């Protein structure tokens, strides 16, 4: 009897679940496309090539690349980026030389040339594009946070004096 009841309960649950409409997952990149279908991505826009540096969002952000890097070879034979961004190359190109972190290995030792961990520049640095973020963000620059805290502190002080 008990076994029969359990079987009936399982059957009933199965029937109820089968009648539920499938959950629709929304993903900003896929839009309404179902998981079983391939989304058609928006066409790529070209890299900005204006030589204008963008402000870094935080001190340790890898700066975005303010120039196009089409057909720049980075493989075991050559690293085009280092032609201009190495310590020596910067003299002629006037590019920002890669910082000391790029010459430091994981033991903290400073090397003569770029550390292999930093060899493939485009794993961290991306070209700038004129596009809007696909996902909303409430990120605030630390400068804005500090300014707000200072203003709040000044207001609190002024109110204290008023009493
Ligand atoms: C022909 C020389 C040249 C080559 C090759 C080159 N760059 Fe540059 N890069 C520059 C110059 C010059 C600047 C300074 C801004 C400008 O003039 O565009 C710069 C700026 C940058 C910056 C911004 C630095 C900052 O301080 O904000 C990054 C990041 C960068 N390049 C990365 C790369 C990467 C990655 C590659 C290879 C895929 C590369 N560059 C190849 C010349 C070069
Ligand atoms: C593992 C991630 C990573 C890789 C790979 C990498 N970088 Fe960076 N890069 C950073 C970060 C993070 C910063 C900002 C902090 C710093 O200087 O370390 C930076 C800073 C820079 C800067 C600005 C330096 C300055 O003094 O302001 C330049 C130029 C640059 N990188 C070029 C390159 C080039 C060229 C390569 C390839 C040879 C490369 N990076 C590889 C993460 C990376």
UniProtKB/TrEMBL annotation:
GO terms (BP aspect): anaerobic respiration
Binding site for heme c 2: 102, 121, 124-125
Principal localisation: periplasm
Region (Disordered): 28-53
InterPro entries in the record: Multihaem_cyt_sf, NapB
Keywords: Electron transport, Heme, Iron, Metal-binding, Periplasm, Signal, Transport
One Gene Ontology CC term in the entry: periplasmic space
Binding site for heme c 1: 67, 81, 84-85
One function term, GO molecular function aspect: metal ion binding
Post-translational modifications reported in the UniProt record: Binds 2 heme C groups per subunit.
Signal peptide: 1-18
Recorded superkingdom: Bacteria
Annotated compartments: Periplasm
Assembly and interaction partners: Component of the periplasmic nitrate reductase NapAB complex composed of NapA and NapB.
Annotated function: Electron transfer subunit of the periplasmic nitrate reductase complex NapAB. Receives electrons from the membrane-anchored tetraheme c-type NapC protein and transfers these to NapA subunit, thus allowing electron flow between membrane and periplasm. Essential for periplasmic nitrate reduction with nitrate as the terminal electron acceptor.
PANTHER family listed in its UniProt record: PERIPLASMIC NITRATE REDUCTASE, ELECTRON TRANSFER SUBUNIT
Similarity section: Belongs to the NapB family.
Name of the protein described by the UniProt record: Periplasmic nitrate reductase, electron transfer subunit
Organism: Ramlibacter lithotrophicus
Lineage summary: Bacteria, Pseudomonadati, Pseudomonadota, Betaproteobacteria, Burkholderiales
